[in-house]
Amino acid sequence: MQCDKCGEDAVMHAAYSGLHLCESHFRRSVESRVRRRIRDDALISDTATGENPETWLIGLSGGKDSVVLTHLLHETFAADPRIELVALTIHEGIEGYRDASLDACLELTDDLDIDHEVVSYADEYDVEMDSVAEDDPLGMAPCAYCGVFRRDALSRYAEEYGADKLLTGHNLDDEAQTAMMNLLSGDVRQVAKHFDASLGSFNHREVDDDPFVPRAKPLRDIPEKEVALYAHLAALPVHMAECPHSSEAYRGEIQEHLYELEDGHPGTRHSIMSGYEELARLAAEAYRGDENAPRGECDRCGAPTNNEVCRKCELVDAVGGELP
Ligand code: SF4
Ligand code: ZN
């Protein structure tokens, strides 16, 4: 097959667009979709200047998604005085797995000359995921603890660091899976959160006292396979191994269904996301000022919650950890 743009040998075929692309046109296409997303989500505030730059904190795990994100942000903004990039890696305490991926992070941030910070569950909660997975006091999948700790560690660090945005490497498949999981759970409040937390809705927010650093997902239009192909073609240092505690069975099931749907009906993931975003916007509007929205603060850590203690503090307690 030949590239539809130049006639060179194609390295990929995107069924959803019908395009065959050669290496160079494929790479350009990924780069321009990511830059368009950054523009459309209005990631760069009007107030960012060379004298008053914005700090963007990148969640860097060493896997393909966050490595591609870091690489593309560096390509786009290294020479832009309005933006300062910093990478943050969370060390969960998973023997063998996280140390190797930390090496990939160090190699990348060294290469790109980006500041790199590491935060560990051991320092933050006095726990390691290996023992959490073994003890499993609440009989949940390890990822159910780990996801709560990671979200908390990322946003707390972003806040402490004074970051203006928190950027993560979620790709189109991740986002479509989460959308389906939220829809199937029937939890519309969770759908609304998608708008508030991650839609790049910074400019039309009505909640100025939002306690969270705004989040953004610049890869959210790029299918997972294209992120992997990009990382491979650009020879980026990616850590490929899977976490030994990886256990998101339900997400895996949804992923299988989505593969099948996408095979039979190319473009399904894109249309799920455009419908979901509109739904999230409408739901967020409908819930504004709703008295059932979390308004209280966690007694221990101050995080917003309707209960006495937030979910994170509950889990830290359950696994015998401690907040600093
Ligand atoms: Fe944590 Fe699960 Fe990811 Fe492993 S796969 S790092 S346990 S969230
Ligand atoms: Zn708490």
From TrEMBL:
Keywords: ATP-binding, Metal-binding, Nucleotide-binding, Transferase, Zinc. ATP binds at residues 59-61, 65, 90, 169, 174. It holds the Pfam family TtuA_LIM_N. The keyword Plastid does not apply. It comes from the Archaea. The keyword Aminoacyl-tRNA synthetase does not apply. One of its GO terms (cellular component) is cytosolic tRNA wobble base thiouridylase complex. Residues 56-190 form the tRNA(Ile)-lysidine/2-thiocytidine synthase N-terminal domain. Gene3D superfamilies: HUPs. CDD domains: CTU1-like (cd01713). InterPro entries: CTU1-like_ATP-bd (IPR056369), Ncs6/Tuc1/Ctu1 (IPR000541), Rossmann-like_a/b/a_fold (IPR014729), TilS/TtcA_N (IPR011063), tRNA_thiolation_TtcA_Ctu1 (IPR035107), TtuA-like_LIM_N (IPR054306). One of its GO terms (molecular function) is transferase activity. Residues 2-27 form the 2-thiouridine synthetase TtuA-like N-terminal LIM domain. GO terms for biological process: tRNA wobble position uridine thiolation. Zn(2+) 1 binds at residues 3, 6, 22, 25. Zn(2+) 2 binds at residues 298, 301, 310, 313. NCBIfam families: TIGR00269 family protein, tRNAThiolNcsA. This is TIGR00269 family protein. It comes from Natronomonas salsuginis.
